[in-house]
Amino acid sequence: MPARNGSRMTIRLARTAAAVERWSFRAVISCLVPVLWTMSAAGLASAQDQLRAAPGQDAPGTIRGAVTDPSGSVVVGAVVTLETAASTGQRTTITDEAGTFHFSAVGPGNYTVTIAARGFAVWTSANVVARSGENQPLLSAVLRVAPASTQVDVGLPPHELATEQVKAEEKQRLLGVFPHYFVTYEPNPAPLTAAQKFQLGWKTFFDPVPILASGISAGIQQARNSFPGYGQGLEGYGKRFGAQYADRVDEILIGHVVMQAAFHQDPRYFYKGTGSFGSRALYAIATAFVCKGDNGHWQPAYSSVLGGMGAYELSTLYRPGTSRPWLRLSHTVLLGFAGRAEGHLFEQFLLRKLTAHVPKRALPAQPVLRAGTPVSLISVEDLSSKTAENAGPIAFVLASDIQVGGATVAKAGSQAWGRVSYAGGPAGVSGTMHVGLEHVRLTVGKVEVPLRSTQVRGGEGALQYHRLEDSGRIAIALYVDENIALPPAQ
After folding, report:
1. Which residues lie across from 115 on neighbouring strands?
2. How does pLDDT run across 210-234, given as a tens digit for each residue?
3. Are residues 221 and 340 both part of a single domain?
4. Is 131 within the bounds of a domain?
5. Both 177 and 286 in a single domain?
6. Is the model's pTM score more than 0.85?
7. What Å distances lie between residue 67 and 82, 95, 98, 99, 423, CA to CA?
8. Which residues are within 8 A (CB) of 393 and not within 5 positions of it... i.e. 6 or more apart?
């Protein structure tokens, strides 16, 4: 009996333990299910939030922006370039009348946005991410006004530069013999001080060649018995020699030094050497009546006129008198103009080639924009609404910089103008466009550059273009029509 009771007790305990175990498992399961459900829901929500936070990782998005100047005014026609961080490609558009832009269907990745507009510094933003959705934030770009271009010349001060130039001019000799000091072949000569003007003067009339020339001229006059009042013999020769040499000194000292120093005008002739024959001839004649002032501006040549009159009056002190001095004086003034014009013409076309020790003329580099150079333009207007009836002048902006010899001669955002004419067909259809562009000209600084539709002059082919970013604006490639010499780079 006791053994049977013990086995029953064991069976009951086992059944009780099993029941307790089943109840405990159910309790644990009932507690774990809500917890696991909560955790899974939170994880799903977190994943959805992450997907919403970075939609560009899976689907194309849009990059939108607005461009203003420092005053808050919108900038219309600014060239906007979108480029991948890896520089594998780029897209271009321009801002509309509201100063906004957008790029649609932008793939995942980081982008660089560059904005260029005429008169403003280039604006750049890196690591821009495309976003999708209705209320995406605008990329705000505030363009700064471009700083004024300043040319800094590094070199000698003006006084020292003039000293070096005077030393070079003192070596100039016509036919290698006659002093030829009062001509400068420098493209931008420095102004002379009064002391430097006197230096050129005394170097001229103390040179042995003018003294020898005065002696020869005096001998010829004595042989012809010119100025018989001087007599003959050594005394007559001495008077003639003194008068001849005094005339040369008067002409240089009074006509090229004293008056020019007093009135701050340059006594030298400024050689031109460039341009057409007619322009050089007119320049040579005009400089008989005007001269360069020490301030760098052209002025009436009153120092030369007064110097010629003073030299004549001084010569009357040692020359035999005349019964009509005022007539002789007026003739001297008129002959002075004629003599300077004649001398300057010889200087411009002949004497430069006969002068020894002329410094090499350093001409400024002048970039040339060659015919056939491609020019990428974007229309400012929406052409989708243009018809033959309302066709007319159309504005473009330069889509990318134009470089000549490694130097940028026209920056993105420069303006071009032309006239549009229609031969039929909509302007908003990509491919071959039935729109003719006439007299398109690009503004490069102060120079108007004509453009043509084909790279080879007279070439055939329809005008090609493509439409920009869901608008009627077009991007088009034209070509420089002829070689254009541009001003030297500053």
Report:
1. 80, 123
2. 899 999 998 998 999 888 888 899 9
3. yes
4. yes
5. yes
6. no
7. 14, 7, 9, 5, 36
8. 417, 418, 419, 420
